[in-house]
Amino acid sequence: MKILVLNCRIYSIEYEVFEMTNGARETELCNGIVDHIGFEQSILTHTTKNKTEKIVKAVLDHKKALELIDQTLLNTEYGVIKSKDDIDVIGHRIVHGGGTFTSSVIIDEDVKKEIYKDFELAPLHNPYNLKGVEAAETYFPGKPNVAVFDTSFHQTMPEVAYTYALPERLYHEYKIRKYGFHGTSHKYMSNRVAELLKKKNATMISLHLGAGSSACAIKDGKSIDTSMGFTPLEGLVMTDRPGDVDPGVIVYLLRSGWTLNEIELCLNKESGTLGISGISNEMKEIVEAADKGDEKAKLAVDVFAYRIRKYLGAYCFVLGGKVDAVSFTGRIGDNSPIIRGKILSGLEGFGIKLDNKKNEKAIGDEQEISSSDSKVKIFILPRNEKILIAREAMEVVTRK
Description:
Elements: E1 2-8, E2 13-19, E3 27-35, E4 39-48, E5 51-59, H1 62-74, E6 89-94, E7 105-106, H2 109-117, H3 126-139, E8 145-149, H4 159-162, H5 168-174, H6 183-197, E9 204-209, E10 213-219, E11 222-226, H7 248-255, H8 260-269, H9 272-277, H10 283-291, H11 295-318, E12 325-329, H12 330-335, H13 337-344, H14 356-361, E13 367-368, E14 377-380, H15 385-399
Parallel strand pairs: 1-6, 6-8, 9-12, 12-14
Antiparallel strand pairs: 1-2, 2-3, 3-4, 4-5, 7-8, 9-10, 10-11, 13-14
Helix pairs in contact: 1-3, 6-15, 10-11, 11-13
């Protein structure tokens, strides 16, 4: 079974094609991205077996982007299918499923209506996720499309974890509650850690650290709390988002003459480690500046790590102190020994003991970086939501 995985964003579509076989390891046949959709200089980057092709041309919308992907997959030189019929299923990353979807589902008109209803909850994601679904229906007619929701993994959170201390009418009238995000990433890490520990399910703390960052407390393979909330703004400090902030600050800025657009821009694009350092929204550049003695960069790195340590401690208690593992993923989580060291130093009393030599050498690859006498295992797991989406899509269509 060949599964096409799509992740549609406002200006890009990421794609992979997997060959899936029951009971066997999956094979990635190709991966790629169409970037700068809507611009005259759009770029498709397509990789198969360590060979990369680049195509530069105008791609004005998501339908044209998927048409270009389709043509690329069919190319006699570097394509991976002989006809459209070779694609059996299309799996879609859908960011927001509200409180409706607790698992992945085959997309029909009712599902599309629900995705549409959640446009207001995820205005930067769901509209473009749905464009991808509609484009796939056009270019692969008759093939099942499966929605894999970022929020569905967190639907196992208990009411005490997802309820805000606000008037109940806000929940009923405006759907205001904690939803959580990065669910596909956290679920992949949960599944993979369980495999590495040779357990059916893992109890762990999952850290997804990148441009967007989140923590997740997972008990017996199920999410019971996560740091992102009603939107991806809540929780950890991120590269350009503030994470937890006193809501009184927003009220104060409004009374001081700020507009809603100015506040939204500040919170989504100008805050986080960029806001503190004034340097960049790339953590690597901030770490390098901190190493050279830049005090604001040092503060940005320390605040980033400190907030994660707070959540790590809180989730240790939420899980009753019985934690199998802590896992790292994302561009920062995989690639920054300095950040990991700052987060995990001095936690031996909690059974978390980092092997500093392993940590210093660990860049990108899947590996364990805990000390041999650490009660809690520490893993680096390269981000791999795509294979989870492919697995979910296969499971949904085969159980139908």
